[in-house]
Structure formats: structure tokens, C-alpha cells
Amino acid sequence: YRVKFSQIKCVSETDGLGKDEIVTTWVVDADGKAFEKHTGVYEGFYDNAPPQNYLASDAAVFPMKGNKGGEVRDHLSIGTSLLEWDAGDAQAATEALDAMGSGAMALGELFGPIGAAIGAAVKIVLEVIGALVSLFGGDPDPLGVDEVKLTAADLQKKTAKGSFSDTVQFANYKDDSYHYMLFYTITREQPQ
Predict the structure, then answer these.
(1) Who wins on pLDDT, 122 or 160?
(2) What are the E-state strand segments in the chain?
(3) Where does residue 46 rank: exposed (0-12), middle (13-18), buried (19+ CB within 10 A)?
(4) How many CB atoms sit inside 10 A of residue 102's CB?
(5) Are 42 and 86 in contact (CB under 8 A)?
(6) What is the tens place of the pLDDT at every residue in 98-146?
(7) Which tens digit of pLDDT belongs to each residue from 56-102?
(8) Distance CA 130, CA 68 (A)
(9) Rounded distance, CA 164 to CA 38, Å?
(10) Which of 163, 152, 156, 175 has its CA nearest to residue 74?
(11) Pairing of strands 33-38, 20-30
(12) DSSP code for 160
């Protein structure tokens, strides 16, 4: 399978100064093997702005590496979080995310089965990453976490015609009204 997040659309920007600056973070768990991935800063979001395409290097979320699709025998969970800045240092956050992502990858490779524990708590991991970025990386506003959880059987059904597309959404219409949509596609690739 391949998972690609193609675009991000701002339906309604956050309250605050200036246009929104967004960093997207993913924690992916495929059969108990987990990893973190994040984008650089995407800028210029305002109410009903046209969707922005993710860069090719950011769009490919699963598998982490390689030209072949990733195997899923049991489950695939993709947790997505958005961090936003109106002011502050968004670049500092991407540097903090780079350091945390490298550390998480090293721990996962070193301890192997730790991936299953991380994968079971994808949402919690993303919330911890958000808190650490707030502490070390420029005071972002976390816009929430959304998780797509699919069993191998779900993936087979949904990709019966080759692929399926959907969105993950982040919205708050109470304190700080905002609404973002992220568009993704999961494609089935036959083993070679």
C-alpha cells in the first residue's frame, strides 16, 4: 500500500494576527512498526484559500522509504496533527520536530517491539510531540489530532478498485474558530 496526503485546504483560518503557518505531523503504525514524519512550514492560509499541494517529499506518508508499497498484514494507523503559528518561530518548531523524529526512529530501531506500544497510542504520541514542540519550538497552537485506523481487511475492501480517497479534518467553532481539510489517497500495490 501507499498513502499520499496530496493537499491541505483552509476553510477557516484561526483567530489571530496574520495568515496561518501550518506544520503537519504524522505518526504511522503499520503492524506494530511505528515512525514519525512531519512537513516543513506551509504559509499563507486564510479563509477559503485555494488548497495548497504538499511537496512530493512531504506527501508520501507510507511507506517511509523506498519505491515499493508498504506491506500491511494486520493494521495501518495514521495519526495526523496540525500545528499553527500566527506569530512565533515556525522554523524553530520544524528543527525541534527534526530532532524528535530522529530520536524516535533511533529508539524504534533499537528496541523493535516498542513500535507496537507506540502504535497503540498514536494519538497520545502526537499530543506529546505537540507539547514538546510548544516547549522547544516557537509556541504553536495545536489544532488537534485525527486518526485513520484500518485493518488489513478494511484496506482490501476500500482499495478493491485500486485506491480510495478521503479527508481528515480539524475544526473548532468554539474558542478559536478554524477548519482545515487534508486530502489523502491510499493505493493498493500488488507484490512484485
Answers:
(1) 160
(2) 2-12, 20-30, 33-38, 42-45, 52-53, 60-62, 75-85, 141-151, 163-172, 178-187
(3) exposed
(4) 11
(5) no
(6) 554 544 444 444 434 444 444 455 555 555 555 555 555 556 778 888 9
(7) 999 999 997 766 788 999 999 998 988 887 555 555 555 555 554 54
(8) 31
(9) 23
(10) 152
(11) antiparallel
(12) T
Q: Which residue type does 158 have?
A: K
All three cell numbers of 130, joined, read: 505537540
User: Which are the contacts of 32, defined by CB distance < 8 A and separation ≥ 6?
Assistant: 74, 113, 115, 116, 119
Phi and psi dihedrals of 121, rounded to 5?
Answer: -125, 40
> Counting Cβ atoms within 10 Å, is residue 31 exposed (0-12), middle (13-18) or buried (19+)?
middle
**Listed residue (125, 81, 133) closest to 104, CA to CA:** 125
SS3 172: strand
Burial class, 79, CB count within 10 angstroms (exposed 0-12 / middle 13-18 / buried 19+):
buried
* Beta carbons of 147 and 123 less than 8 angstroms apart: yes
d(CA 96, CA 24) in angstroms, rounded, equals 13
**Helix or strand run (H / E) with residue 115:** helix 114-120
| Cα 158 to Cα 28, 97, 148, 152, distances in angstroms | 19, 32, 13, 10
The total number of residues written for the chain in this structure: 192
